[in-house]
Amino acid sequence: MMTTGDILIVDDERDIRSLIGAVLRDEGYPTVEAATAGEARDILAAKPPGLAILDIWMRDSDMDGLELLEWVKGVYPELPVLMISGHGTIETAVQAIRNGAFDFIEKPFKEDRLLLMVRRALEVSRLERENAELREKVSEDAEPTLVGVSPAIKTIRTAIERIAPTASRVLISGPNGSGKELAARLIHHHSDRRDARFIVANCARLGPDSADIELFGSENMGTSRRIVGLFEQAHKGTLYFDEICDLPLETQGKIVRAVAEQRFRRVGGNKEVSVDVRVISASSRDLAAEIAAGHLRDDLYYRLGVVPLTMPALADRREDIPPLARHCVDIVSRRTGLARIKFSDEVLAAMQGYHWPGNIRQMLNTIENMIIMAPQDRSEPLGLDALPPQIQNISPAGGNSDMEALIALPLREAREAFETQYMDAQLRRFDGNVSRMAGFVGMERSALHRKLRSLGVSTDRKASSEEGGEG
């Protein structure tokens, strides 16, 4: 039975605390107990629980349960709280619900009812977290699918399957738009932390004055006012640092300790906060160069880079472009409500020949524009004119001037000239990978080699071209 933290039980009667704790532990729930509001606040300040059960009437305490409920909701607004009381009235129950309690249980209570309320509260809390994440991240690259059949993507899938079940920290490299965050979300999704939150820290937006508060939170001593930082929000889940090199150096030093010890102090606080957070980081830069330039602390790099993972550029996995293009059509159509489009073979060939400097993100934007601008009747595949000019120019056909030059030649010479252009275009399309090109054009590899030599087309483009390795 997984929760995103301990269940906090607050009651001034030891027997009640022990009874509730024993019932919950028998069902696999971890618990922690407090006899007073002060003890409860200390526990809450040190570690966020997954659920709180508060007694309304407490002796020898500076707050009653309703006041403590208000304090808890000021610190952790999303924390589910159950209120219990042996002297409850309808008015008290209504006030507790109005103040943010999930439900109200009267003493003496039956074990079955208590467990039902706990399960419901935790399930509703989980669903609310998931819905919040979906609302925050209903975008193209949030689709939890790694599309492709290339050797590069097969390698990434295998790596994610091995990495996800562990608690190891992961450092993902790769160019902008290549799917680094998607890989991080997949690792989280396939881990035992999937029921907790996946929190994104956009390091480029964390300035020197705000980074510490955003990450570690803050508290105003003498009052109940607190800001819960991203580390606490990710408790029992995953914290993803996007573009880690953009973090201020002073904050990088604090993260080294927080990541290693899973403890930190809020800004303005004097108590240690303990968390259980898996950290995944990403960067599109040359990390060795960033360390040499003083933009990334080497001790942070070694803390974060326990398991390195590299996302390939789209130009290095060209055989994935057709299925990715169709996947992007599905994403945009669902998001916009517009009818799907079809691609002609010419369009897909041009897409495969293009170098895609913006990678998958650029492809998605391109296809969204194509869907918006496509004619009303979408029964026929789109032609080259639907593509942006820079991609149209990659077409192997070459254009009208090339056709006129071919027409001026005898058939044998025209055929040879066309084959030369065609083979050269296909080599570019597959980055010199003759094995994959042979599968596409429908020839045996040895026969294709002979044809390329007879046409004078050089295959010396990549060292891996002869063995069918990653393009």
Overall mean pLDDT stands at 85
Shape call: elongated
Rg of Cα set? 29 Å
Q: Quickly count the helices.
A: 20
**Helical proportion?**
40-55%
**At the third CATH level, what is the topology name of the largest domain?**
Rossmann fold
Distance between the termini: 45 Å
The major β-sheet equals: 5 strands, parallel
CATH superfamily of the largest domain: P-loop containing nucleotide triphosphate hydrolases
The appropriate CATH architecture of the largest domain is 3-Layer(aba) Sandwich
Q: Provide the structure class.
A: alpha/beta
Instruction: Give the strand tally.
Output: 14
CATH domain class name of the largest domain: Alpha Beta
The unreliable regions are: 138-143, 395-401, 462-471
How many domains, as an integer?
4
Strand order of the largest sheet: 2-1-3-4-5
- Name the beta content range: 5-15%
Could you name the key traits of this structure?
Rossmann fold, disordered C terminus, 5-stranded parallel beta sheet, 20 helices, alpha/beta, 471 residues
